[in-house]
Every structure is written in C-alpha cells, then in structure tokens.
Specification:
It comes from Aquimarina atlantica. With 774 residues, the protein is an alpha/beta fold. The strands form nine sheets. A seven-stranded mixed β-sheet has the order 7-6-20-19-18-8-9, with helices on both faces. The protein has a six-stranded mixed β-sheet with strand order 28-30-29-33-27-32. Strands 13-11-10-16-17 form a five-stranded parallel β-sheet, sandwiched between helices. Helix 1 crosses helix 8, helix 5 packs across helix 23 and helix 19 crosses helix 21. The longest helix is centred in the first third of the chain and has 24 residues.
Amino acid sequence: MYTSLTNRRKFIKKMAMLSAMTAAATMFPGILFADEQEKGLPSGDIDWTKAPCRFCGVGCGVLIGTQNGKAVAVKGDPKSSVNKGLLCVKGYHQIMCIQSKDRLTHALVKKNGQYVKTPINEALDIVANKMKDTIQKHGKDSVAMYTSGQSTIPEGYVASKLMKGAIGTNNLDCNARLCMASAVAGFLTTFGADEPMGCYDDIDHADYFITWGNNMAEMHPVLFSRMLEQKNRRGAKIIDFATRTTRSSTASDRSILFEPQTDLAVANAICYEIIKNGWVNKSFVEKHCNFSKGLTNMGYGLEDKYKFKDKPQKIDFEAYKKFLNDYTPEKVAKYSKVSAKDIKYLAAIYGDPNKKVVSYWCMGMNQHTRGTWMNNLVYNIHLLTGKISQPGNGPFSLTGQPSACGTAREVGTFTHKLPKGVVMNEKHRRLAAKIWKVPYERIPAKPTYHATEMFRAIDRGDIKFIWTQVTNPLVSMPKTSRYRPGMEQDSCFVVVSDVFPTPTSDVADVILPASWHIEKSGLYGNSERRTQHWDKMVDGPGETTPDAWMTIEVAKRMGYGDLFPYSEENHVEEIYNEYRQFHEGAKHGMAPLEVLKKESGVIWPYVNGKSTQWRFNAKYDPACSNGEDFHFYGKPDGKAVIWQRPYEPAPEEPDNEYPFWLNTGRVVEHWHTGSMTRRIPVLHKAMPSAYVEFHPEDAKALGIRDGENIKVTSRRGSCILPASINKRGLPTKGQVFVPFFDENMLINDVTLDAFCPISKEPDYKKCAVKVEKA
C-alpha cells in the first residue's frame, strides 16, 4: 500500500512538473518538447549517443541519432540535469548544417591568387614551415594563434602548449575575450577564483530571478523555460532589467528599462538602499568581506597608449557608505531613466532576508567598457545581503559559447592564462613547465596581445603569421572594417581552420578543413562548471581533421614532437589525463574520463566521487577549511571583496551628428556569426537576414517604414539593413538594435573598439550612430 501511494505521488508530481514546463515553454517560441522531438524521426533502427549541444554555453545534453554511418536525428537527453530533455530550435536542428554543399572537405592553399585543393599533409607542412620561417626571421612574438570558446578542451590545451610551452610566446588569445573576459576579471577581483559558485539547480530554489541586460528567452531559452516553469509551479518572479523590450521582457513579471551604461549607477543605488534600510547581513559582511577601491582614471581601451595599474586600496564600511551618498535612487533616476520607485523595488527584493534571489547576466553586462566593474557591483549586492553560495541565492554569469568556461577559462587560452593560473605568477609557470616538460624560462612572464590588440598588431605589421581555429573574427571583431585590409596584406600569412567558408577564410593563405562536433571526440565545459564528454559518432567528409590533431601535427613538424607524444586514436583521452594534473585537489578537481563517459556531465570541483554544486559554502564545498560557514578561498585571507566602483559615462554617446545609440546582439534562430545556423534551412528561412530595429515614434519622425532599407553609420563605418518596426523587439526612443549574425550585413564594421581596460573585453552594446534611408 505504501509503495503504491509513494509511486502515485511521484507520478502526480512528475505530471505536474511536465505540465508546468509545457505551459512555461509555450509562452515563447523556440523550445521543443520531447514528444515534438520524437515526431518525424527516420524509420528503422537508430543508434543514440550522448553529447553536449554544439551551440551556447548552457550545455544542454543531446542524443545524436546515427544510421548507416550518418547523423540523422537529434533529441534532448532526458538524463541531462541541464535541459531535462528540452531543446531549443538551434540545438534540435544542429546536425542539418554538416552536410552543407559548401562544406570544407579538403585543404586549400592560395597559389597565384587562386585556391588550390591540396592534400592535408602537404598543407600542414606549409603551415609548419611558414611558422618556423616567420619565427626565424622576425622572432617568436611575430606568430600568433586565435582560438575559440567553441574549441574543445583538448584543442585549447594543445594550442596553449604549442604557443606558450613549445614556441615560448604568449601570442595566444581567443574569441571568449569578446564575450566572457569581464566575467573572468569580475570573479577574480571579487573572489580570487573564476566561474560561478552556484549551478542551474539554483533555478529550482530561487524566489526571484533578476536578469541584468540579458534576453534569456532568446539567448538561453532552455534555462529561461526552466525559470518559467518555476514561475508557473510555485510563483517565482522574473524581473527583466534591460535597455530594450524583448521576448524576455514580455514573459517576465516586471520589465525595467535603463539608459545604456547607467546600470553601474543603478547597482550602486541598490546598495545605497540596502544599507539605508538596514538590510545588510552584518554578520556575513563582518566575517567574510573586505572593502576596496581601485583607480578610476584608466581610459576606455582605445589607442591612447594609456597605461595604468589598478592597485586596490583597502577602505572600511563607513568610507564605502559615504561613497554611495552620490547614488541615492532620486539622483540616479535623473540620468538612468529608472524611476526611484523601481530602484527601491529592486533593492527590496535583494534586501528581503526571506526571499532567495539569483542574478543572471551575459553579454549586456560583460560587453561593457566598465564590464569588470559592473560584475563587481552585482557581487556587491549579493555580498552585502549574504545571498550567495546557497541553493537559490547567488550571482550567475552565463556564457555564450559551449566551452568558453571549459576551454578558454579553465584550460587558459587567453594570453595571460595557463591551464592553471596566470603567466605572471612564477609558481603557475613552474607547474606548467613541469607538466609540459619544458624549461621554466621558456614560458614568458608577461601577457602579449589580447584579441582586439592582436588584430591591431596585424594591422600595424607586428604579427606576421596568425592561425585562427573555430572562429570568424572578420565578422565578430569590433570595427572589423579596420582589420580586413590588414589580414589581406602580403606581410601577414593567415591560416584558417574551419568547417565552412567564412569572410575570415576568404582572406586566408591556407584553409584547413576541420572536423565538426560529432566527427571527433571531445570535451566541453559549460556555464555551471559542468564538464561533458562525447565520442566520435560519424566520419567527416574528405580529409576533415580535428583541430587538436592538426595542431599536434604542426607541432611535430616544427620539431616539438617530444612534447606532443599523443596517438591519433587516443589523443583526446591522453590530453585530458595530462590536463587533469593541473587541477588536482578539492578546489578544482576534474572528474576522471571514465566517469565523464558514463554521465551526462560532472560539475567541478569533483571530490571523493561527488560534484561540488555550491562553492565557498562549507555545507557543500569540501575545499572550505577556515572553520566558518563560508570560505572565499580564492583570496589569501579567505574573504571576498566589496568594491567601490563609480558610474562613468560611455566613451561615445549620441550627439547632434550621431543622435542614436546602437545596440547589437543575437536572435534565437541564429548563433553568433551564423556560419553554422545560416546553413540550416529551417533556421535560415525563419530569420533570413539581419535588420535594424526602431522605436515606432523614431521611425515615424524619420518617415521610415517597416522593411525599408536603412543606412546605419558611425564614425567608423556603415551598414545597410531593412528596418524592423513593431516586430520582435522594441528599443527605447533614441536607440536602434541590430543582430550580428549576417555576414552580408556587417554591423561590426560600425561598432566601437573601446574595451574594459581590466578585462580587455570590447563594448559592442553601445556607440553613437546616425540613420538615414539608403
């Protein structure tokens, strides 16, 4: 009888959950349920194999169906705790691009201005010889690699080992610099350790979700559907804090719009209210927090040759409280366009000790000329209230790429990073040298070029050779119009590894045909510190080759074979086992490969056979060792930092000549530069081209009609796009929005290459433009 009742309760609970998720996800398009995914499957026997999704940093688990040596179907993995069987439209249709007619299947070498089909081994010989020759003539810092948050963990690891350990240059950076570097810098400056302390299970516990400049309904739709599920099941609230009205806004309980750049001021005003109303968790702050301020006169990352050192200066709570007097809700309301009432509303949510709150953000906060500061300020709110490192309480930075965490941040494919730690730290360099079996002195102690500066160096002629892997910088870089001529010039030899032709491969001297996702084995690391493994499922066409193996082959040809003793059949396993040595211990232990092969993913730190879901909380984290409830062990004294960070205006604001803000971003149908999703017929049909979104009153004042071609012009370049009025999104008056997925409408020719001077991440979210009929 007891068993029968228990099973019945479980059944009812499961049905209620499924009903809630269905109701939640149908509030916006883009999510497919398990029954939808089962429709239209090919007949006959299908072999299903687990993998993470190829696209965003959510890290949804998928099952790839293969039949007769071909990938024929995709569905969500019901065993994955990330997506619980759900998929967005991109994830569900992902395999449809790999058989595209213009797939790169063989190496192409430019000879006399024409691309010539070349055997892959011959092409790799050319790459290795050119790299060696360039180093001999111009020095080791004349060569560079630019990789990706889409690179697998083994791919990023061997790129780092080749450049920093073998050649001895830090000329390695990645496109994660363009999207997540401010999150990295924010975590490190506040906590001394990178990546979120919580996990997606926070969604099941939080009473409020506050999204900071993040259109989750389109950018992270599966997570947003999980939030909507909690809204429907138990009344959790979603607060959208953004610069324009989006699908996330309409599905939220409240939408609050702010003027671009003023999120800094609003965050400080929230802290002011928390202190004023006595909502500070005094015991937590006294035990676990310090207060600091850094230098503020540091420029905007433009080419003003500005040098600074952001040395922290300790202050006390009273000094911090006094600083916040300039950020009363009434003062901030005047220039943020957020009412004092709304600021107080947000503060009351965070300040209520009986409400659990998760803050989510992505590019809106990170692609910011004060992106590091903005991350620090949201941490301040959670630290002041003690709402951190607990189920349902915490700040959570989402990622845009499938392994921006696992590869860029953990493996360390930034110029300043190593697989553990940073190049500036002697202890970290010695550890890398020991594991890599290279002389310690070979690894340079100073970073060289971050992404934007790397392409500036190509333009100046300082870099003579660059190899890009799994990325498309001539669509994704800010101010791209500057870098295209630099990469076309004869003084720079360009190698591009990719799956499809792109505007970047158009300027390459050698194009290498890369294996796609399921045509190789690999590992990704997602936003919640979850490492996921998959096995090769199908053969790629022609001479397509995994990026890791191409790097290894070039290293061998350059004379570094003893440092790369991996076998072609097992190199993924061999590399991962070597990489795990960097992270042994309770603070960042990685799960063994045999565990990852069985599971749909494992969260690190993996200690004593168990994932650590909430870091820095002694109840859940075995690395805590100070005898207190919380231990922020990334910092020497075990305390997190509450930073005094002021509001500063953007480097470029609208004026009489350029009267509009330009904001750029993404849409649910397409992913980043669209090189994959635009080759998926159903997604291309749903969103065939980019557009420029107007507020209806601005469009009326300018006499602009929907669909009419409009020229958007900045001080750097221009772009012609069709107008979009009263469709998907609604910018505020005086602002236009353009998605950047369309290589035929290069809006990044228009954007500003200013960046956060701490994180070096560019600000794609705001610059001044004028608009006119084309």
